[in-house]
Amino acid sequence: MIRGAGGRYGWALGGSILMLATQAHAREKRFDLAPGPAVQTLSAFAQQSGTQIIAPADRLRGVRTPGIVGNYEVQAALAMLLRGTPLCVARVKAASIILRECPVAPVPKPTSARDRRRTALPQRAPPDAESVPIVVTGTRRTDRTITDLATPVTLIGREALERQGVTDMGSILRALVPSFNMTRPTISDGSSFVPPPTLRGLPPDEVLVLVNGKRRHRSALVQLAGGPLAAGSQAADLAQIPAMAIDRVEILHDGAAAIYGSDAIAGVIDFTLREDVGRFDMRMRYGQYYAGDGRNYQLSGYYGAALGAGFVSIAGEFNDNGVTVRNGQRPGAWLIRKQYPQYADLVGDPVQINGNPRARAGKLFLNAAMPLGPGEAYLFGNAGRSKQRRNSNWRQGLDVTGPDALGTGTRLYASATGIYPTIWLDQLPNGHYDATGRSFSFTSLYPAGFLPQFEATITDLSVTAGYRGALANDLRYDLSLSRGVNRLRYHIANTLNPSLGPASPTSFYIGTLEQREANLNADLRYDWDMGLASPVSIAFGAERRHEAYAITAGERLSWDVGPWGIAQTVEWPDGSSFVNPGLAIGANGLPGFSPSAAIDRGRSSWALYADVEADPMSGLTLGGALRHEQFSDFGGTTNWKVKARYALTDWMALRGAASTGFRAPTPGQLYTTSVSLTNVDNVLREVATLPPDNPAARFFGATVLRPERSTNYVAGLVLTPHPRLTASVDLYRIDLRDRIGLSGNFIVSTDAQREALRQMGVTSYARLARVRYFTNAFATRTQGLDVSISHRTGDGPAGRLVTSLLLNHNRTRITARDAAVIDDVRAGNIEDIVPRWRGTLSAAWTLRGVAVNARASYYHSFTSHALPTDGGNLRLRAEWTFDLETSVRLTPKVRLAMGGENIFDNYPDLNQRSMGLPNQNWYGFTGTTIGGTRYVDESPFGFNGGFWYMRLELSL
Fold first, then answer.
1. Cβ neighbours of residue 829 under 8 Å, at least 6 residues apart?
2. Is the N or C terminus of the chain more exposed, i.e. has fewer CB atoms within 10 Å?
3. pLDDT by residue (tens digit) across 901-956?
4. What is the pTM of this model?
5. Residue 60's domain spans which residues?
6. Which whole-number Å values give the CA distances from 241 to 170, 195, 219, 273, 517, in the listed order?
7. End-to-end CA distance of the chain
């Protein structure tokens, strides 16, 4: 399937198999199980026996089991536990036992209508998802474990999520999943506040995000400056999901557009909310970086209570994060402090900050369900708000001369353009300005320069309400309606609109971005017993979606053209004159959104889908899915998926899948409009990012955006030689066509161009200077390997040890591109900016009240591409980081943890590039680049160094 894969990955496959060793285990186990609900007793039984238990979730509701105390063989103990219940053993495997409903269920008749309803309701996930791993992502069957699936799924339990030194969800997944990565651009407009994640080296919006199996809405940010992989993408904001609210995370590493629809190309991430009742948990955490900055305060809590026969749970999190400073001084600022000591207090050291932004965030999740009529009503949703602040680039206020980068000569470090030239204020009757009258320069306000402060307030809201149950013929249904909105409001301070002259404010409201989505879904499932090794699981349904994108204009002064935004003629008393160039227009650092950029546009779609899966014979699973989706703007698309799993033995199986997929262009990509004004040869001009259907964009070749299309292949081997030892090796390939990107800037410079634009109805034809737009521009092929090996011991005198090795190899190659959109530098970064090898080796040891978690992470070398004039390409070496946490149970309800991330304080290589004289980007006298930075933004483990923390856990 993947040409030449055997030689490339043979060492990894051979090494993986070599690590597998079977272990003898005692025939009898010690059991101590109290009578209770089957959900709880089966979970405890699985943990005490070291065996996975797979049960039909919808048949556990209302079932109670007797208690067991003593030493028994596993199957004998299970038979005792199931006595008098409607459950029987269907199949015994090396690593798991599968239960089913008995042909004649020996269960007493319900004594009330409520009892009858409860036995038909779908069962919620057990408190410990790792003990009874009924996996739902990527399949609609409810009797699947990780190793039973035909496609690879990573399951992350609650404990793993909470035992991390990092706090935001994106960073947690980066630490736990080698194929997942997330970098935080330092000074990059909105991307600094909504860092873009990637899975398998593909853009953020190639990954579908679900909560409780329902599609989550996107962020309002279209990543116009999110780095080479994310540029132009629009995806869900993972930072809005608090770890305390999550019971488990399932990550499907395969295309699933035929099941879930648009975006599910690189994979699917499904967050399952907690449902445990009768408990109150609280976590208090403090940490900071070894460098002494970046202080982090976190308070999180969870409360779950029974609501009649249902439940309600609330989880919340508050974070307060300080800034980090990992840059040095800008050369221009260094020279000003040296040559103009009177301004030293006005020019910080360093003058600007490149690191984590100042951030505060509050997040809340609600989850509830209760019996209603013959089924169950459920409701979940979130409310979140965060405020983040970071600086833009420093605007230098003075011209200074000093050493060049090579230290062999001198160069001019000029002041920021379009801000500081002197302007004249008194106008003569002829419209000219009086050269002998009053004058003004912004050096009176900012003598040495200024540092704009960029602030974003993010509001995130969602709600999903639904009803699910089963009809008399066992047809299960799930009807739901979801609404979600994400809003990004921008402000900028400590800046100015130079064109307004002395009347300019120093702070501005820039405008607001908003993404709105609504989903109406009907899911139906029926298990048809045809006499095969398993019933045929038939699922089908329909979905109706509406999504809209809006840009609200900022305050007028943030984008307006002031009197000094155009060139002025300054006249002397003798009649001689000179032309003074116009000053910069709009809030400096980020001009406000003008009314011409304001939009509110949306689109609708509907989908029909079907999914069939069954075991036609023992050991063989076959499945297929088909989905047709029709969009109001670009038409329809039909996608399919086929998958299979074949058990060679009871501990070894082959699995694989092939599918097609698509990603519909988002309303943000379809309708984003960004217009700023600039001076070109003393004439006011527009620089515009336009929708593809805009006449000016069409003049330069824009066409209607098409959906991105993919073909996915995955093939793997699953090994379970022992109930406590599992391994898998999966090869994959993703062919992605019609990828969407931003075009280069097209220059409007001739009268013929302007006349053609006028005839096309472009009202701003006389002002346009540069145009760019979203377009289908390139195609890629991604190939890779995932290896997963995990082992856990039983509880013994030496405690319990869980170890895992996760390895990912990923390589993307561009197979076709439009050079006007994807230039050589971006093409190189798309292919080389992500480490091709990434791996983690982790161990978790527990003994009574003590727990130790350790992890080693490996990041292969990678290359950052740049123009020769910027120093050229830079190869960064491979790196290791190590994390460690130790926790002690002080009382049955109190635990104290201490730990560190990157405990050996490792940093990536410095951003020192050299293509030979004079193309050198590193300034030796400051030890920085021209912008004062020291590291590339794309470092896969960041560049903040070591971090330590303490956490106090209360469970009541």
1. 227, 228, 229, 864, 865, 938
2. C
3. 999 999 999 998 876 555 578 898 999 998 999 999 999 999 999 999 999 999 98
4. 0.85
5. 34-114
6. 9, 14, 12, 10, 17
7. 53
681: left (phi over 0), alpha (psi -120 to 50) or beta: left
Q: Is the peptide bond before 918 cis (omega within 30 degrees of 0)?
A: yes
Task: Please tell me the predicted confidence (pLDDT) of residue 679.
Answer: 57
Kindly state whether residues 197 and 65 are assigned to the same domain.
Answer: no
Distance CA 81, CA 83 (A): 6
**Domain end: 114, 145, 171, which one?**
114
Per-residue b or e along 832-857, where b marks 16 or more CB atoms closer than 10 Å to that residue's CB:
bbbbbbbbbbbebbbeeeebbbbbeb
Q: Encoding tokens for residue 91?
A: 């199949």
Mean pLDDT, rounded, of the chain: 87
CA dist 764 and 752 (Å) reads: 15
CA torsion sign, 820 to 825 to 829 to 831? positive
Q: Which two tokens stand for residue 570?
A: 């300054």
Q: Which amino acid is at 719?
A: L
Q: Residue 639: which of 706, 704, 711 has the closest Cα?
A: 711
Judge if the upstream peptide bond of residue 721 is cis by omega within 30 degrees of 0: no
Residue 751 parent element (H or E)? helix 751-759
Q: Kindly report the CA angle at 448 between 447 and 453, in degrees rounded to 5?
A: 100
User: Residue 24 domain-assigned?
Assistant: no
Q: Spell out the residues 6+ positions from residue 892 whose beta carbon is closer than 8 angstroms to its own.
A: none
Quick one: how many helices (H) and strands (E) in the chain? 13, 50
Together in a domain, 506 and 626? yes
How far apart are the C-alpha atoms of 462 and 821, rounded to whole Å?
35
Distance CA 337, CA 150 (A): 64
Rounded CA gap, 179 and 153, in Å? 12
Tokens of 284: 């208090």
What band does 109 get if pLDDT is binned at 50, 70 and 90? very low
Q: What is the DSSP letter of 595?
A: G
Rounded Cα distance between 421 and 106, Å, is 90
Same-domain pairing of 239 and 365: yes
When divided into structural domains, the chain yields a total of 2
Q: Is residue 478 part of a domain?
A: yes
Q: HSE (CB half, 13 Å, CA atoms) of 443?
A: 15
Do residues 82 and 166 both lie within one domain? no
H or E segment and range at residue 603: strand 599-617
Query: What does the DSSP 8-state code read for residue 179?
Result: T
Please tell me the distance from the alpha carbon of residue 82 to that of residue 84, in angstroms, as a whole number: 6
> Are 109 and 176 in a shared domain?
no
pLDDT digits (tens, 9 = 90+) for 227-279: 788 888 899 999 999 999 999 999 999 999 999 999 999 999 999 999 988 88
Angle at 538 between CA 534 and CA 540, to 5 degrees: 165
- Looking at the fold, whether 45 and 174 belong to one and the same domain comes out as no
Spatial separation of the C-alpha atoms in residues 948 and 523, rounded to whole Å: 46
Shared domain for 61 and 196, answered yes or no, is: no
Query: Quick check: helix, strand or coil at residue 259?
Result: helix
Same-domain pairing of 216 and 91: no
Look at residue 312 and tell me if it is in a domain: yes
CA 480 to chain centre: 25
Q: Which of 333, 478, 445 has its CA nearest to residue 396? A: 333
H-run or E-run covering 610? strand 599-617
Whether residue 11 is contained in a domain is answered as no
Cα–Cα distance between 373 and 881 in angstroms, integer?
54
Determine contact, residues 572/489, Cβ cutoff 8 Å: no
Q: Give bridge partners of residue 493 from the DSSP assignment.
A: 453, 507
What CATH number does residue 104 fall under? 3.55.50.30
